[in-house]
């Protein structure tokens, strides 16, 4: 479920340290960031607007800038990341870059025309507050377009973790961070005041030789569990081999490889502007809905 206002779910300092640690070797593990950045770029190209000033919020090592290298829709792309090490890595492309916290945006009201975010907002504690800050930073008719991991992410690994820990210790503790639900995320767009909000999801499935290769990629991306409720005690020696065995038993295909599912939530919304399409007033329809749908209107039983 989506966290409520003021609720602390993630250790943001730990998220930053893990991103800093991942920065030097991220190029060997950033396939998901690159893939989803390309998906975001495709969605942006469906929009006819031009954006003088855009922000890539949670830029990692500049995947969005690479995906947008051939477009002329953006005049200036500013990059920002929670991790100073990743911000320095992204800055190598010559674009203006800063390190900043998504929960405390250093941008004035109405200063941006476009805010993009690629697989970063799922680590935010105050997502309602962050979305509100983004909407305020956008000029009227500015666009917010983001991708974040959703609740179906790593469902196979979550199952293997629970089964292995239950088998070895008789119980299970949180081993993966919680992710947002699509319906909740869509509702937060409306709550933050975005016009024409749209939310949808796509699942990206990656094939691995074994669970250890998946875990290495998660560490290499800086995407391992940073929940405040994580168990700080080291697991039994047999824990990770048991996880790998259960993962393979439950999910391996005929070739012996295992799937890892990443549910990607895509969120889009506009800063309100008078030129945007507006809903018609209630009761203004000229034809009954039943007639439009080709059905028969029946009274509600009391």
Identify the notable features of this structure and list them briefly.
alpha/beta; disordered N terminus; 7-stranded mixed beta sheet; 302 residues
If you had to describe this structure to a student in words, what would you say it looks like?
The protein has 302 residues and is of the alpha/beta class. 34% of the residues lie in helices and 21% in strands. The protein is built from 10 helices and 7 strands. The protein has a 7-stranded mixed β-sheet, with helices on both faces. Helix 5 links the parallel strand 4 (112-118) and strand 5 (138-149). Helix 6 crosses helix 9. The model is unreliable at 1-5 (pLDDT under 50).
Structure, briefly:
By secondary structure, the chain is α/β, with parallel strands linked by helices. The protein is 34% helix and 21% strand. The protein contains 10 helices and 7 strands.
Query: How widely separated are the two ends?
Result: 35 Å
Shape: globular
Helical fraction equals 25-40%
User: Taking all residues together, what is the mean pLDDT?
Assistant: 91
Total strand segments: 7
Uncertain stretches of 5 or more adjacent residues: 1-5
Topology:
Blueprint: H1 12-22, H2 31-45, E1 51-57, H3 63-67, E2 74-81, H4 84-90, E3 97-99, E4 112-118, H5 127-137, E5 138-149, H6 155-169, H7 182-191, E6 195-208, H8 211-221, H9 239-251, E7 258-270, H10 289-293
Parallel strand pairs: 1-2, 1-4, 2-3, 4-5
Antiparallel strand pairs: 5-7, 6-7
């Amino acid at each position: 479920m989506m966290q409520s206002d003021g609720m602390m779910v993630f250790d943001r300092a730990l998220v930053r340290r893990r991103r800093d640690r991942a920065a030097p070797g991220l190029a060997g593990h950033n396939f998901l960031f690159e893939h989803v950045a390309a998906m975001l770029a495709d969605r942006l190209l469906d929009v006819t607007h031009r954006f003088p000033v855009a922000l890539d919020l949670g830029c990692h090592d500049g995947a969005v800038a690479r995906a947008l290298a051939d477009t002329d829709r953006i005049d200036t792309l500013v990059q920002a990341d929670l991790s100073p090490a990743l911000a320095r890595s992204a800055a190598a492309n010559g674009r203006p870059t800063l390190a900043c916290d998504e929960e405390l945006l250093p941008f004035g009201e109405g200063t941006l025309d476009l805010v993009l975010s690629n697989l970063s907002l799922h680590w935010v504690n105050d997502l309602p507050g962050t979305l509100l800050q983004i909407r305020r930073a956008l000029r009227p008719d500015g666009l917010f377009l983001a991708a974040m991991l959703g609740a179906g992410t790593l469902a196979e690994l979550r199952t293997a973790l629970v089964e292995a820990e239950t088998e070895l210790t008789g119980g299970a503790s949180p081993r993966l961070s919680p992710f947002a639900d699509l319906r909740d995320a869509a509702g937060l767009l409306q709550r933050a005041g975005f016009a024409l909000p749209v939310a949808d999801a796509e699942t990206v499935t990656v094939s691995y030789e074994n669970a250890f290769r998946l875990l290495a990629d998660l560490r290499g991306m800086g995407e391992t569990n940073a929940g405040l409720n994580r168990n700080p005690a080291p697991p039994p020696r047999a824990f990770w081999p048991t996880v790998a065995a259960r993962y393979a038993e439950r999910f391996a295909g005929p070739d012996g490889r295992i799937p890892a599912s990443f549910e990607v939530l895509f969120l889009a919304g506009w800063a309100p502007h008078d030129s945007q399409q507006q809903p018609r007033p209630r009761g203004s329809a000229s034809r009954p809905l039943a007639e439009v749908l080709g059905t028969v209107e029946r009274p509600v039983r009391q």
